[in-house]
Amino acid sequence: MGGGKETPQVNRILPVPNSTASYWRSKPHWLDEYRSTEQLPPQADIVIIGTGIAGVSTAYHILDRKDNDNAPPPSILLLEARQVCSGATGRNGGHIKKLPSTIVELIQNYGSTAAGEFVKFVRANIYGVKRVIEKEKIEAEAELRRSFDVSLNKEDASEVKRQFDEQLQSEFPLTEDVNYVGEESAERITSLYGAVAGLSTPVLSLWPYKFVTQLLERVLSKGNVNLQTNTAVIAIETDDDGRGYTVNTSRGQVKTPTIVFATNGYTAGLLPQYRNIITPSKATASHITVPPGQQVPYLSNTYNIRYASDRVDYLNPRPDGSIVVGGGKWTYEKERELWYDNHDDSTLIEPARHYFDGLMQRNFRGWEDSGAKTECVWTGIQGITKDGLPHIGKVPGTSGQYILAGYNGGGMAIAFMAALAVARMIREGISFDQTGIPNCLETTQARLDMGKVH
Ligand SMILES: Cc1cc2nc3c(=O)[nH]c(=O)nc-3n(C[C@H](O)[C@H](O)[C@H](O)COP(=O)(O)OP(=O)(O)OC[C@H]3O[C@@H](n4cnc5c(N)ncnc54)[C@H](O)[C@@H]3O)c2cc1C
């Protein structure tokens, strides 16, 4: 960025206090409110803002160096406005997968080649997270399963089948991973009443908070890393010499030449050029339990339940027999102010407060008399983008500012490998093209221009 002092933007999209309590965050890790030092360090080589999967994975990849790399590791400062992993990563459905139905949208919007690259990238994320969990001996209830995209509606089912056949015919990448079951066996195989069709795909089911906090533990033990929780970044100023930045926080200032924005739905609060490009969007999920001693069929798959093409819930059974379910968007979708451009996860979305009650009894074979009840409901903030794709890479027109954000409710399937790309850009000085991740994910000026109000 050129010289000359800029007026710092004051952050109006800060994470709010007293966020709703999610099941995943029910037992805080010892790092939850940790500060490596009492005061902020005055300077750091790299400042990473945000400690969800994106921020912590970026720090991990920066430090995960080859044995023959003798250069001293850079100093990294991780800044988090609230507790560690208290954003969307601590509040989601716990899935890493790409739905067959969303592949269709990608093909329609970006063509088969770009969609194919994207699907391969998600696959790399599934196996990348699995590998790091094994390598770093992380206990996060991670399990490679099948995820069923189940249609309960005949019209939707025949459209899903038609689209899948088209993908098979065009030998779309990874159709070999996807399996179709039709009406004759869908109900038995999926355990869902009224199932007309199901497409299954590989999924990594995991406990996201456990994954991120334990990965952070490994990061802190690897190098020169300082973690500061309950430290909100309020504004960024370009220094007079144009070579670095002053990061203004709720607890003082830090100088740095390199900033990583891993702030997902909150990004536009710090980077005004992302206003109308990454919009905060509130969503909800729940945890359903069965009374002790009650026998119910164990569900070994995860699900997307398609009541209709525009009414979809997602469901992730836990090893203890309880269930995490999210969705219910159509109960509040028309009341836009309840969710769109809304970053308040301290309250529930009222029309969906009781939506999950009885969901298992209504839909699953053998669960009718289970006594299953909604144990807790929470909300979280996603980052919805103008063109439906995340923004990854160097912030256009800057030097030393990087972003990975805007996952449209699917960041678990993108962020880990996006973080590798950003880490390599910083560490190796390579360009976005050289990272090998799909071109359509690069944050560019042309994509930012889409947000300009004419
Ligand atoms: C209800 C729900 C269900 C979902 N289900 C799924 C799913 O099943 N599969 C899937 O792939 N995705 C799912 N998602 C989306 C997924 O959770 C996100 O895309 C992903 O977690 C984003 O990770 P992140 O690290 O970029 O952002 P976050 O986890 O939101 O982390 C951003 C962090 O930045 C911090 N921060 C923000 N601004 C500042 C600031 N100014 N100063 C300091 N810190 C700041 C925040 O406090 C937060 O901790 C779901 C999301 C929700 C809300």
Automatic annotation (TrEMBL):
SUPFAM superfamilies: FAD/NAD(P)-binding domain. Gene3D superfamilies: D-Amino Acid Oxidase, subunit A, domain 2 (3.30.9.10), FAD/NAD(P)-binding domain (3.50.50.60). The keyword Membrane applies. It holds the Pfam family DAO. Signal peptide: none annotated. Residues 45-424 form the FAD dependent oxidoreductase domain. It comes from the Eukaryota. Keywords: Membrane, Transmembrane, Transmembrane helix. One of its GO terms (cellular component) is cytoplasm. InterPro entries: FAD-dep_OxRdtase (IPR006076), FAD/NAD-bd_sf (IPR036188). The keyword Transmembrane applies. The chain crosses the membrane at residues 402-423. PANTHER family: FAD DEPENDENT OXIDOREDUCTASE DOMAIN-CONTAINING PROTEIN-RELATED, SARCOSINE DEHYDROGENASE-RELATED. This is FAD dependent oxidoreductase domain-containing protein.
